């Protein structure tokens, strides 16, 4: 049986999985996708997932790693996060991180995805920060 996670290994030119390390151990992961031309995103790259274990959150690790990844893949980026009031801390993280990275040169807005989820969409260009 094929696991959906297998795709991240089978398409090395389009999908870029990362393990985040801190304190000499893995503490999270990040999934970056190169956007296909016919995709709904209006970007070159899409941050598909970011996870950091709770014991290292709010220490600047995720923000530092995300900014390094943005620098590594120059172009138009799109990041989505859940718009729910239960997701306020993540929304604050993305607002602060992208605002710092772009020197406030980004757009963000709320939208409904085809699956019905309400998301906040961030768009910016990593080539002209």
CATH topology: Aminopeptidase
Number of domains: 1
Beta-strand content estimate:
35-45%
For CATH, the homologous superfamily is named as Gcn5-related N-acetyltransferase (GNAT)
Largest sheet: 6 strands, mixed
Protein described:
There is one protein chain. With 129 residues, this protein is α+β, with helices and mostly antiparallel strands. The chain has a single domain, classed as Aminopeptidase, CATH 3.40.630.30. It contains three helices and six strands. The protein has helices at 7-10, 61-72, 88-102; strands spanning 15-22, 25-34, 45-52, 76-82, 107-112, 118-125. It has a six-stranded mixed beta sheet. It starts with 6 loop residues before the first helix and ends with a strand.
Write the topology of this structure:
Layout (H helix, E strand, L loop, with lengths): L6 H4 L4 E8 L2 E10 L10 E8 L8 H12 L3 E7 L5 H15 L4 E6 L5 E8 L4
Parallel strand pairs: 3-4
Antiparallel strand pairs: 1-2, 2-3, 4-6, 5-6
């Amino acid at each position: 049986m094929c696991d959906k996670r297998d795709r991240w290994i089978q398409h090395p030119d389009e999908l870029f999985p990362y393990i985040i390390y801190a304190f000499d151990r893995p503490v999270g992961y990040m999934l970056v996708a190169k956007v296909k031309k016919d995709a709904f995103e209006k970007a070159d790259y899409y941050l598909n997932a970011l996870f950091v274990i709770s014991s290292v959150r709010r220490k600047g690790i995720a923000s530092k790693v995300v900014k390094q990844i943005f620098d590594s893949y120059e172009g138009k980026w799109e990041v989505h996060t859940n718009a729910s009031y239960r997701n306020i801390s993540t929304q604050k993280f993305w607002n602060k991180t992208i605002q710092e990275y772009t020197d406030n040169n980004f757009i963000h807005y709320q939208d409904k995805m085809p699956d019905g989820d309400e998301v906040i969409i961030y768009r910016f260009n990593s080539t002209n920060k």
